C-alpha cells in the first residue's frame, strides 16, 4: 500500500514539502477545476494551493459551490483568466484597474474542458476576462499537450499574479520544478521541448 504525505498529498517517495515556499498575494485566488482534472496526480492546482494556502479550488460539478461563487463575484472586483473574443491582454491592465481587482479566477482543465465550463456557466462570460500576449514558454513537461502556447494552471496563476499583483512568484515555479524532478511516471508521459 502506497503511503502519502499528510501535508502535500503526494506519495511519501515524491513528497515535495521541503520545496514549498509560501507566496503572499493580496488577491483571492479561485481555481475552478474540471472534475476529470481533479483525478490527475499531476495537476498543478494542488501546487498552487500549497504555495498560496488561501486558494479556493472549486470542482466545476459542485453546483452549490459554483452558485455560491457566482454570487460572490462582482464584475468590478473579480476577473477571469480565459482567452475569448472579449478578453483583453493582462499585460495592458493599468495600475488603477489593478488596484480594484480582488479576486482572480482560473480554470483548471484542458482547453476543451475549459470551453465547456464557460459555456455551462454563462455568468463567467460577464466577468472581465484576460488573456496573455507575452507569457513565458511553459516548462511543465510531465503533461501531454500539442499546443505550443499552453501553460499549466500553476504557470498561468504565476504569470497573472506577476502582471496584476506584481509579486515574486518564484515559489510557485520551484514547487512545479520539484514535482517534475520527483515524478516517477514513464518518460513517455513527458513533453519534449
What does this molecule look like?
The chain has 193 residues and is α/β, with parallel strands linked by helices. It has one domain: 3-Layer(aba) Sandwich (Alpha/beta knot). 30% of the residues lie in helices and 13% in strands.
**First-residue to last-residue Cα separation:** 35 Å
Q: What is the number of domains?
A: 1
User: What is the strand tally?
Assistant: 6
Q: Could you give a short account of the major beta sheet?
A: 6 strands, parallel
Helix content: 25-40%
The name CATH uses for the topology is Alpha/beta knot
Strand order of the largest sheet: 2-1-5-3-6-4
What is the residue-mean pLDDT, rounded to a whole number?
89
- State the shape: globular
By CATH reckoning, the class would read Alpha Beta
Element-by-element helix/strand order? EHEHEEHEHEHH
